[in-house]
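Query form — protein Lactate utilization protein

QUESTION: What is the three-dimensional structure of this chain?
INPUT:
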Amino acid sequence: MQNIKALFREEKINKTIENLKNNGFDVVLVNNVEEAEKLTLQEIPRGSFISMGGSVTLNMTGLLQKFRSEEYSFFERFAQPTWEDTVKVMRESLLSDYLVTGTNAITEDGKLLQVDSGGNRVAGMAYGPKNVIVISGINKIVADTHEGLERLKYAGPLNSKRLNHKTPCNISGKCENCSTHMRMCNFISIISNGKRPFGNVKVILIKEELGY
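ANSWER: The C-alpha cells for Lactate utilization protein are given below.
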C-alpha cells in the first residue's frame, strides 16, 4: 500500500513540474532543504542585492543568515526598529537583483498562488526584482486553483498566530474575512505563467513537507 501511495505522489509531482515548465517557469526538484539552499546560493552571484519574503519554509533554511553576511547586499526588513522603517525597506527592495520567497500553493496545472498582508511579496513576484526564486515543499501542491484558494484560508490564520497579528483568525483558527488593520489576506495573486520581462520565475521544489 505504501508503494502505491508513493507512486501516486511521484506522479503528482511529475505532473506539476511538467505543467509549471509548460507555463514558463524554470523548475528544479531537490531532495531536501540543504540541496535547495545550496542551489539557491549557486544561482545568486556574490555582491547581489537580495530581498526575501517572509516564509516559514525559508526559515527552515540557513539562507537568511547567509544573505546577512558581507558577501551580499541584503534588504533587511526583519529587524527594523519601526514599522515605517520596515515599509521603507520593503519598498526599496522591489529594485533588488533577487527575490527569494516561498509560495502558499502550487497547482497541478502549473500555477502559483500566494496571499499577502502588505502586498510586498505579490508585487515583487509579479514585477519587482529582476530575478525571482520560489522555494517550496511538495505539501504545497494542490489539485487546482479552487483548492489553492482554500489553502490560502488555511495558511492565513497560522501566519497570523505566528506573527501575533491581532485578528479574529488568530483566535478562531479559521478565516473570518475580517476588516481589521492587521488583516493577513489583503492581496492574493495567481501567477499563471512564469515568464517575466527580466527572466523566468525559478521554482525550487523540495521533496519534503515544509512550512504551512
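ADDITIONAL NOTE: The first strand starts at residue 26 and ends at 30.
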